[in-house]
Design a protein that fits this description.
Blueprint: E1 17-18, H1 30-43, H2 49-63, E2 68-76, E3 82-88, H3 94-104, E4 120-123, H4 130-135, H5 137-143, E5 150-158, E6 161-170, H6 179-191
Antiparallel strand pairs: 1-4, 2-3, 2-6, 4-5, 5-6
Helix pairs in contact: 1-2
Length: 193
Amino acid sequence: PSRTAEYGTIAIGADVRREGERGTMVELSDRRWRAIDDLLLTFYGATDLADLRRRAMCGFKELVPFDKGFFDLCDCGESGRFVFFDPVSTDMTDEELLSYYQKYEPGDYTTWLFSVNDPVVYRDSTFVTDEMRDRSELYREWMIPMDAHYSMGSTQVGNGMIYGSITLFRNRASGDFTEEEEECLAVLNRHGE
């Protein structure tokens, strides 16, 4: 399965990680580990998949601050294309989400990383330069109006299938996501398998 974007060749940076391709491990503080544990414990009370995703987004925001984000589902049918749908967000409008899926998702410059074999955790700044970001329709027409500049995300993969993705955004003033914050998402991702 593959998705292509028309942004030219993009080198994969060291911080785009697939499970099992762990470079230097980032040590998390005891506070972060306790927060991750607390978040995972809330999952047991979920009443359905939408509630579980809502709990993940609310709890992760306590662990790693972000301005906007969503957790969607994925279907990779016989066509071999990833079809993302049913996003859950606690801080984005229905219009923002709808416009992403209707117009911008096919050209999203992060989805070419996705694989059905291994979960992927990424920070877009490790493989997309500001110049490339500025040229993309996704950034100019969708992210800038939401005051979003940086993104971090992951795919949830199990049994050779992507079953969802988490995408988080920060504005320029909030600064980029850190390696430690990326590691928090990687830990959460491993528990979702």
